[in-house]
Amino acid sequence: MAAVTPRLRYHCVSVMPGKMSCAAAQAIHGQRLLSPEAPRLPLDSCETPGECNCTYQHHDDRRAGPRRARERNELADPYSATERRHACGRRLTD
Question: What percentage of the chain carries pLDDT values higher than 70?
């Protein structure tokens, strides 16, 4: 029995316009779209659907690039906000 690869939850695609691409393909170039929501190729508003050579580029996730400081090899600054605690408490006896 063949091994089944697990389906990625946020698999997405982006449209890669061909050499002679239409304005519709250029407009969504670089946008990551979830696979079920991606438009079919050729696009409905394609000016030359018979000669369309646009393709999909597949991505494992919708997000591009590292998001967290440690993923970008930076130090996170946990104390960047001003200190809001005071020396005394809220009660009159504190």
Answer: 70
